[in-house]
Target: Putative prefoldin subunit 5 isoform X3
Amino acid sequence: MASSKGAAAGKPTGSIVAEMEKMGVEQLKALKEQADLEVNLLQDSLNNIRTATARLEIASIALHDLSLRAQGQKMLVPLTASLYVPGTLEDADKVLVDIGTGYFVEKTMVEGKDYCERKINLLKSNFDQLIELASKKKNVADEAGVVLQAKLKQLSPMT
Model:
């Protein structure tokens, strides 16, 4: 991120526009392209957070359902999203929690549920922060577009 964009993102809209009006057409085009790119990257991040949150919510529901099952009950165990194998529930109080990059930790049912809830809360907090940042970047991109159009309109009678 360029320093002028970083500084502009935290300022009130009026001062952003004043700075943009001092820029040349090429600088404004570059600013708008960069801001649009950042908005797209933030949108991708938001989608990834939504997906991760949904998966954790499903895992939390699965843990709750698992806690209601009796020991020794037969069930299908997912190995992948589309491959299940028959199994028997040995201990409903111990679960394996995927903590990332292929690492699993054995936890109690309560600790597993707590882990899911903490991760969901963290992701929701990050989501809210990214929404705010994406909104600011979108405003910068929109303002740059407006100023750029005005400058191009001023230049067109001269050519």
